[in-house]
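Sync notes, pocket subgroup
Present: LS, DG
LS reminded everyone that the earlier model was apo-only. Rerun requested with pyridoxal-5'-phosphate included. Inputs:
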Amino acid sequence: MEISKLTSKKISNNLKIAEEYEKYVSKGVAFKYFPVAVVRAKGAKVWDADGNEYIDFLSSAATYNIGHTNEYVVKAIKEGLEDFIHYCLYFYHEPAVKFARLLVEITPGNFKKKVAFGLSGSDACDTAIKASLLYTERPNIASFTYSYHGTTYAVLSASGSFNPKLRKRMHALPNVYFFQYPDTYRCPFDLSEEECGEYYLGLIEDFFRTTVAGDSFAIFLVEPIQGDSGVLVPPKNFMQGLRKLTKEYGIVFADDEIQAGMARTGKMFAIEHFDVEPDLIIVAKAVGGGMPVSAVIGREEILDSALPQTYFLTSCAHALSLRAAIATIEYVIKEKLAERAEKLGNYAKKRFNELKDKYEIVGDVRGLGLLLGVEIVKNKETKEPDRKTALKIIWRCWEKGLLMMTYGKYGNVLRVAPPLVITKEELDKAIDIIEESIKDVIAGKVSDEIIKYLRAWE
Ligand SMILES: Cc1ncc(COP(=O)(O)O)c(C=O)c1O
């Protein structure tokens, strides 16, 4: 059946663009959800090619913390355009200096820091890996199962969310070892949160002692909250224990703040929830306010162990984009977006927990600030993941004017990551839409047919 027969929503213009896109764009680029062709976006709202209006719970994958087409940032871009767009770093420019200084100032770590620039989260993670290999002169990379650090060759190899078949066909780097990230919702043996932290840490310690020596590892790539696996918040003792362990073995602790950083979780950097000082911090997405910007900030001796050109990209530290990034950081600070994320996040969590009390299929609500996950299950007792129902819920949400994605280990977690400037009214309306959609799906009002159109995260 054609997709347009499955919905009463007006989508003809969107479909035309989607069809052309499929003709010319590789299917390897991205998962695809609804036929939405974005034509305009402002604050927490998005409009498509058929004039449909949406509340945005995705923020372009946690990019628009400051909201779409933020006026403060747009002004900085317009002003920058009058001077020059970019000049590569064979010479110097002021935006690079200002941006690097700002990053050094706002990141945790009371030691001498420097910055390396990039364009996307993936290349910045690559930079962190290169810096650590060069600094330690060790061969191995540690990462977590179900982690996501990007798609350039090294980080695709070091991401735990690509299936073994793809890894094999790609000849993924063989020097990467994956450890289990704590999952407090599904922790074995019904352990308490603290015991769960100890348990998962113990697995790493044992491996270092018995299988591959801890001091052969150059880097531990760590998401402070594991996003794409379904918003897993690790116990504090786990993160602190991991920091201690990496120090003992001389492994670079690299904190990937690409999804969780820039005030989203209620702190500027999510790692601050754990009172942990990383050696390297990786930022991208939200730091550019919508422009392609990434960076690694960290110990001077680690980042300076590379020879010139090791991190070079012709367009890195892209001057116009950095003007946007500087304005973005200023805006996040002056508008106290971290506090706002905490307050609105607590409110949203309270409302989602009410849904959890009401509906058997809402198994878990977790996250910090406005990085939240709502896990859909067959029932609360078995916790059996229910990806199909989760997809039907987001489909109905889309029909009712809310853009939301699913992700997670089992593809059954509703991804709640709106712009931090979302109003309370918009947030309430979005959660009302989710509740109505849950009811419609439970009542059998959403056809199974829609599943095949959602080429969603699995
Ligand atoms: C935690 C994390 N690391 C790295 C990346 C890769 O960033 P990018 O897609 O900007 O290359 C992402 C993107 O989703 C991410 O969520």
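DG: DSSP finds 14 helices and 15 strands in the chain.
LS: The pocket of pyridoxal-5'-phosphate is lined by residues 61, 120-122, 125, 148-150, 223, 227-228, 256, 258-259, 284-285 (CB under 6 Å).
Action: DG to write up.
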